[in-house]
From TrEMBL, chain A:
<feature type="region of interest" description="Disordered">
    <location>
        <begin position="1"/>
        <end position="26"/>
    </location>
</feature>
<keyword id="KW-1133">Transmembrane helix</keyword>
<feature type="transmembrane region" description="Helical">
    <location>
        <begin position="167"/>
        <end position="186"/>
    </location>
</feature>
<protein>
    <submittedName>
        <fullName>Sugar ABC transporter permease</fullName>
    </submittedName>
</protein>
<feature type="transmembrane region" description="Helical">
    <location>
        <begin position="34"/>
        <end position="61"/>
    </location>
</feature>
<keyword id="KW-0813">Transport</keyword>
<keyword id="KW-1003">Cell membrane</keyword>
<feature type="transmembrane region" description="Helical">
    <location>
        <begin position="236"/>
        <end position="257"/>
    </location>
</feature>
<dbReference type="InterPro" id="IPR000515">
    <property type="entry name" value="MetI-like"/>
</dbReference>
Automatic annotation (TrEMBL), chain B:
<feature type="transmembrane region" description="Helical">
    <location>
        <begin position="138"/>
        <end position="158"/>
    </location>
</feature>
<feature type="transmembrane region" description="Helical">
    <location>
        <begin position="237"/>
        <end position="258"/>
    </location>
</feature>
<dbReference type="Pfam" id="PF00528">
    <property type="entry name" value="BPD_transp_1"/>
</dbReference>
<keyword id="KW-1133">Transmembrane helix</keyword>
<comment type="similarity">
    <text>Belongs to the binding-protein-dependent transport system permease family.</text>
</comment>
<feature type="domain" description="ABC transmembrane type-1">
    <location>
        <begin position="67"/>
        <end position="258"/>
    </location>
</feature>
<feature type="transmembrane region" description="Helical">
    <location>
        <begin position="179"/>
        <end position="204"/>
    </location>
</feature>
<feature type="transmembrane region" description="Helical">
    <location>
        <begin position="102"/>
        <end position="126"/>
    </location>
</feature>
<dbReference type="InterPro" id="IPR035906">
    <property type="entry name" value="MetI-like_sf"/>
</dbReference>
Length: 317, 272
């Protein structure tokens, strides 16, 4: 029954207007055909799928942006394998991603559960908490670059806390800045996820716990946290994918420096392709990033059992 | 039901208010101060006098043009999304064809692809098409990367339309086109406003595509203008922050007047 309807169905025009269709095909009448999806599919293929295939092809080619690309086999890949900056960039990417998850998850759970309460002061403060969401990643990075300026920024004011005030001069502090700025920028977003999820927890669970004499902290650990499990996985996948593709923050705050001490893979890709004009190697890094992000997301989904869990959410949300 | 106030939460929330509020205070206060005042008294002090030079200065250094460019990009991206996604989502929800479900899977796959992944071939394609340093060269890929999430949001909203309504229209002999125009579009207004806000945000905040695909002042968008201002006049912090504040004004307006749609657009969910 399903295959019959795939044959091109015209988008317009009356269909069998006089005859009442038999009961079995009553649901088939007036269903749109593939033609409705075609324009979007073509557009998306042209500007997303074709480039995605091309990035795989380009990763086996040498191209400087001027002459036409040359096929070079595994050259780009084998050079990357031996490139100390590339290996360091993978390590830095993982470090920043893990730092992001570790810092943002507890913070946004606490803030989200807190903001889910309907008290007046919470509603008012939440409005301020969400303001960073109104700034683009670029604006956030530019703002913090200015705030942390070694000469005119906050560190220069508080030398008792920040030493010489140049947080961009050493690897440890530069990484700290990147992790902090990402946290400042993205915590409100994840807070929103947890706020929505916390509000969806059935109140009866808390009422039952109350009757059993469970205090606030036991309620949090035994009801709230387990009920937020699905949101945690969603939010963590977004954090991981976001962490692997962080770009503006590094470009604007540290330019990958000092030296290559904060050159994460996505920035190294940009640096290789658009500063060293080695587009082949840049494509190889880009492809590796997509594959890594997809594999890690799949692992998180599989390990957490999220793929089997969907049905168990139904009664709750 | 609450028995006693939650003191730990209160203290924690005030700490976070400090972390979020202090930078925002500096941001706003700095834009009203002179460069000299900022340099001498530091970022955290109270303004010593009042000036709007930082805002007018932003326009003098070309932000008027950048705003115009960003507006064009945003409007066109939203237009393309509104043209392509509703028929697509309608087909995803209502079509029984295998090709359509294959298309849906293609879009789901697209959700996982970040712009960084395709930026090199995009640069190649756009240059070959003669669209380098042309706003159209920014608009097309930006719109394409809005499609997967928009399709997901809108098809979610359209799934909520009750099947009985379709059946009733089918009994009257309505064509797919008539159902789309008279039933589906009016009933998925929430989803439509979410995808408008979502794609407008993507376009307004977009950085990587403009960075790689444009170069001259006449095609510069606001985010790129901020980045260039910072690298060129990094020392003029109040001027820079004035431009930052200007760049968030449109989003702030949406936040004030359509908070629900904005939050949903940001989260890329719902639309109910």
């Amino acid at each position: 029954m399903t295959t019959q309807t795939t044959s091109a169905r015209p988008a317009a025009g009356p269909r069998k207007g006089f005859r009442r269709p038999p009961a079995s095909s009553a649901t088939e009448v007036g269903r749109p055909g593939f033609a409705w999806a075609l324009p979007a599919a073509v557009f998306f293929t042209l500007f997303a799928i074709v480039p995605l295939i091309m990035v795989a092809v380009l990763s086996f080619m040498s191209w400087d942006g001027l002459s036409s690309p040359q096929f070079v086999g595994m050259d780009n890949w084998s050079r990357l394998m031996d490139d100390p900056v590339m290996l360091k960039s993978i390590w830095l990417t993982l470090l920043l991603t893990v730092l992001g998850v570790v810092l943002q998850t507890p913070l946004s759970i606490l803030l989200g559960v807190w903001a889910a309460g309907h008290q007046r002061n919470r509603a008012v403060l939440s409005v301020i908490y969400f303001v960073p969401l109104l700034l683009s990643a670029t604006a956030v990075s530019v703002l913090w670059r200015a705030l942390l300026d070694p000469n005119f920024g906050i560190p220069a004011e508080a030398t008792w806390l920040f030493g010489d005030g140049n947080l961009f001069g050493e690897q440890a502090t530069a990484i700290g800045v990147l992790a902090f700025v990402s946290t400042w920028q993205f915590t409100p977003f994840h807070t929103l996820i947890y706020q929505g999820a916390a509000r969806a927890i059935p109140q009866v669970l808390y009422q039952a716990a109350e009757i059993d004499g469970a205090g606030r902290y036991r309620q949090f650990f035994h009801i709230t946290l387990p009920q937020l499990r699905n949101s945690m996985i969603t939010s963590m996948i977004l954090m991981i994918v976001g962490g692997l593709t962080t770009f503006e923050t590094v470009l604007i705050l540290t330019q990958g420096g000092p030296g290559t001490d904060t050159t994460i893979s996505a920035y190294y890709m940009y640096d290789k392709a658009f500063k060293s004009f080695d587009y082949g190697t840049g494509s190889a890094i880009a492809l590796a990033l997509v594959v890594a992000a997809t594999i890690i997301s799949l692992i998180v989904v599989r390990v957490s059992g999220y793929d089997k869990m969907r049905s168990s959410m139904e009664g709750v949300s | 039901m609450r028995r006693r106030p939650n003191y730990a939460a209160g203290v924690g929330s005030l700490l976070w208010l400090f972390v979020v509020g202090l930078p925002l205070y500096v941001l706003l206060a700095a834009t009203l101060r002179t460069r000299q005042d900022y340099a001498e008294n530091g970022p955290v002090s109270l303004p010593d006098g009042f000036t709007l030079d930082n805002y007018t200065g932003a326009f003098d250094s070309g932000f008027g043009q950048y705003f115009l460019n960003t507006l064009v990009v945003t409007a066109c991206v939203v237009g393309i999304v509104l043209l392509l996604v509703p028929p697509l989502a309608y087909a995803i929800v209502r079509s029984r064809g295998r090709t359509t479900s294959a298309v849906f899977r293609l879009f789901l796959l697209g959700l996982a692809v970040p712009a960084q992944a395709v930026i090199v071939p995009m640069f190649y394609l756009i240059s070959e098409a003669g669209l380098y340093d042309n706003l159209l060269g920014v608009i097309l890929p930006t719109a394409a990367f809005c499609l997967p999430m928009s399709a997901l949001i809108l098809s979610g909203a359209m799934r909520d339309i009750s099947p009985e309504l379709y059946e009733a229209m089918a009994m009257d002999g309505a064509t797919p086109r008539r159902m789309f125009l008279q039933l589906v579009l009016p009933l998925s207004r929430g989803g439509l406003s979410t995808i408008v806000v979502f794609s407008a945000l993507q376009a307004w905040n977009g950085f990587l595509f403009p960075l790689v695909l444009t170069q001259s002042d006449s095609t510069k968008v606001v985010t790129l203008g901020l980045y260039n201002f910072q690298t060129e006049h990094g020392i003029d912090i109040p001027g820079l922050l004035g431009a930052v504040v200007l760049s968030m004004v449109p989003i702030l307006l949406v936040y004030l007047f359509a908070r629900r749609a904005l939050v949903q657009g940001l989260m890329g969910v719902g639309g109910k």
